[in-house]
Amino acid sequence: MTATADNGWALSITRHIAAPPEKVWEILTERQAEWWCPVPWRAEFLVQEWRAGGRTSVVMHGPDGEEHPHEGIFLEVTPGVRFVSTDAFVVGADGQYMPAAPFMVGCWEIAAEAGGTRYTATARHWDEDTAQRHADMGFDAGWGACADQLAALCEQG
Q: pLDDT tens across 142-152, in order?
């Protein structure tokens, strides 16, 4: 997908996964650490409050010891369908939402298709520069590798 103003400067990947939606949803949400980062990176999920307004906190660990923390909130959690989060807000120490330097709104969706599941992950950005920066960071390769890792987990016997 080409990022444009009309589509919210969206970058997106999709895969058909040869597994039922129930299994894909379970692995998508309950085993995130196993697919979230392209190997050899790994993800450490500190907090996942699976509800609209709930906090999400993950640290991505790189192979050279680098760490990239990501804080945000869930905007939507529709079990078996999709979850949406953003880093435009974080939950402060007092439990209140605090504005943050936004990078994207992420949406992870599944739907039954052709005896399996259509998985789609989309990152919407505030502007063209941010979308381009994400593309230059390796969006297609990185998010594509994550989708492949998710598919492999789901398709295991």
A: 999 999 999 99
